[in-house]
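note to self: dont lose this again. the chain is below, predicted strucutre after it. 580 aa total, dont forget to put it in the shared folder this time
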Amino acid sequence: MKNKSSVFKILRKIRPYSAYLVMALLSAVISVSLTLYIPVLVGQAIDNIIGKGNVNFANILQILIYIAVGIIGILIFQWIMNYFANVISYKTVRDLRREIFRKFNNVPLSYIDTHSHGDLISRVINDVDAVGDGFTQLFLQLFSGIVTIVGTLIFMLIIDWRIAIAVVVLTPLSLFVAAFIGKLSHKRFSQQQILQGEISSYVEEHVGNQRIVKSFSFEQRAFEEFEKYNTELYDVGFKAQFAGALANPSTRFVNAMVYAAVGILGALIAISGTLSVGQLSCFLTYANQYTKPFNEITGVLTQIQTALAAAGRIFEVLEAKDEAPDLVPCKKIDDCKGNVKIDNISFSYTKEKPLITNFSLNVTSGSHVAIVGPTGCGKTTFINLLMRFYETDSGTISIDGIDIKSLSRDNLRKQYGMVLQDSWLFCGTIMENLRYGNENATDEEVIAAAKSAYAHGFIRRMPNGYNTLISEGGGNLSQGQKQLLCIARAMLTDPAILILDEATSSIDTLTEIRVQKAFAKMMKGRTSFVVAHRLSTIKESDVILVMKDGNIIEQGNHEELLAKNGFYSTLYNSQFAKSS
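---
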């Protein structure tokens, strides 16, 4: 049932290319018709060879000319059929890749967070390629196969209905064999595609973190772990390919029996005088042609099975629930003041384990709010809720008195400038990376933002300055340089509300002091939320929220919290115990 469902879904994706489908089918009809007409010509040529010294060479020559023209026509129309079948396949593959990539942007962030990134990448690349390869073969065999079966059946019925019925009765045996083997092998092909996703995930994870692997001398253990995946993929892949490979010789054996039966029955009828030798030759050719499509389809059964398994994985992604749509009509903030009110919100990643419960906070415009607490207390989760990366289970968050759920996500996120601990840069020039959040920024504005973030100095020393190409993930930059570029990128957006999540964690002390001054200047008049572990960096904050187990347990400025001698005081003193 799942296979049928995947096929129908793929066929719906092909619908926009119906014109190509019609052209491919028409080419198949012409090509197969010519193929089926040639045995008739051959049979006529045989019947013109009556006996020794009694050969009609004039008729045979004319027939040979017809055969030559027919063969040329077959070649031309087969090429046309192949061309259109490939056009359909590759356009469908292109559309599938486009849809999956768009889907990644439409699903909730929770979907991306709860799925292996390597596996998702494998679905975009490996699985879509498998669908393209498998369905190209299926189209080619399907178009010519259906026309061949129908055409040969008609021709055989015209020549001798008795032999035709014998062929039709015996042929389903090969279908039963192919269906049985296909059902047997599909599970293994599905497992093979899943394992390919897992091994892609493992490789992506380790290639992207080679510094960590080498620093912990994990190379041998990483290889051993990879070898487990690789061996399992080999075992499953071998069994899948072996099971799939059984189909073709099995059906060929059954079809050979059909051919032998036709030969014996035809010879008996020919002896009785109701069938000429030429007609018998023609019939044997048709019997072979009739069974040929079954052989060809089972010959590419492994590719088709792989394609069906891959299609199932692709549609799992495409049918995932999209992010809840924005309200229509939605409200809009044009001139954000930065007043943020959090009213009794609760949130949990899983229902069994509450994280944030009954959390309330009122932040006035221009306030500098620091959020501190132990790992896992909900600091970053709070930021995710502010940005609507995740939706609250209950309660409301509002900006300038407007519930953020009534705003479009695009409009909401334009009010924020965010710098995360994990810096992200794409493959492109430094200038392009800095303009990521503000494409209309002038060169002068970009340079000014870089100067404010203390990134201008090292950029100027790069081989091509702001036009220097950054490799994937910023591999040719230090971690500190990448973070400075991310800070400059946020500054360039000129946001109403700033979110800094350990934004200076990878910067040296001297540069951090300078950047903190730049932040202080940037945060002036802007509401800002700063998540910090180094408490020395947030002593000047207007309000410090101390979180534990998803709740605010203390609130106040630095001096007030120290005076309380509570949890914040314990955290602060633990960081400076040696110096005191």
